[in-house]
Amino acid sequence: MAWNNSGGPSPWGNPRPGGPWGAPQPPGGGGGGGGRGPGPDLDDVIRQAQDAVRRWLPRGSGGKGLALIGLVLVALWAASGFYRVNPDEQGVVMRFGAFDRTAPPGLNYHIPWPVESVTTPRVTRINRVDVGFRAPGDTPVGARPIAARDVLEESLMLTGDENIIDIDFAVFWRIRDAGEFLFNTRNPEVTVKSAAESVMREVIGRTPIQPALTEARAQIEQEVRRGTQAIMDQYRAGVEITQVQLQKVDPPTQVVDAFRDVQRANADRERARNEAESYRNDIIPRARGEAERMVQEAEGFRESNVARARGEAQRFVSVLTAYQAAQDVTLRRMYIETMEEILRRNPTVLVDSGLQGVVPFLNLGGEVSRAPVAAAPQLTRPAPAPQLGNPNQMPARPQGVPR
């Protein structure tokens, strides 16, 4: 097919008289004349492009060459659908702009543009949202650090006992589901902040000020994290709340001095209470131990007396039985044993009754005799034993035998 009707040379060779596009030159020449000629013909441009393609194809290929180029182009377009998702990312595949699926880390494939497109947000990065204050950004090296700015409309909250408290806290979160994160919430960071602030006000609203300032901080953090996560799950925001960290929990600055005085008084009260508890824990067990000791001693004394009384009764029964079996021998043995016991415990001095002017003397070799010196007792015969015919009759006690 010729590029011009006159059969002249190729448009890429020597120029034709009518110009390179075969159009007549305007009057006055084509160099620097007074007017510009009309633009190139569109059909001529298409024919020139076709001719340029044919020059790159082998001679005689014809339509097969065009088909080969088309296949190459299709193969390149299809190969452009391969993409890689990094370990810290998650692939989100969109088909004609609408969410279709999520892709795991690794090598994946999607239908090339314009059918499908891929977004790979980072899902392992921990994001932070500050509530109640604004932390300064990155400070240049050598510059003076900028202090954090307090936002009172976010940090002032009402406690369960109707006190005002100033709370600054930070919420740390990450992307759990990239598809939900990109398409279910318009501004996830603002959503996380609003939900965390709402839950914090709810938790502080049922907590007294004293526990909120001291021992209940960890419990407050856990409750706010769980509550915020429940709201994010309800919104299907694809966000995981990893941590809620309290930065500052103080009373308002206008009353902080008075509140610190109250805190010191409470600390003194707690110290005195602890001392009293310590004293009670020391004295009560000691008193209980002493009472238990006295009870045990009383029990032992009772058992001892009971056993002694039983022994004495048993001994008396044994003596009675022996007496009933042999009264004369038993009476004499009892008399001798009794006198032996008396004479052993009481030192005795025997003096003849015929002596006159006996002077008492002091026993320097032993204990001082407390008993007065008396005349020698006259030994008498024991009373006769009762008759065997009357066993209930007891013999008369010998003289000198203690009752």
Largest sheet: 4 strands, antiparallel
Order of helices and strands: HHEEEEEEEEHEEHHHHEHH
Shape: elongated
| Residue-averaged pLDDT | 74
Q: Which structural class best describes the helix and strand composition?
A: alpha+beta
The unreliable regions are 1-37, 371-403
Q: End-to-end distance, in Å?
A: 167 Å
Helix share, percent: 40-55%
Give the helix tally: 9
The percentage of residues in β strands lies in 5-15%
Integer-rounded radius of gyration: 61 Å
Q: How many E-type strands?
A: 11
Characterize the structure shown.
With 403 residues, this protein is of the alpha+beta class. The chain is built from nine helices and eleven strands. It has helices spanning 42-56, 63-79, 152-155, 178-183, 188-205, 209-213, 217-235, 256-325, 327-345; strands spanning 82-85, 91-95, 98-103, 106-109, 116-119, 127-131, 133-134, 149-150, 156-158, 164-175, 239-250. It is elongated. Mean pLDDT is 74; it is low at 1-37 and 371-403.
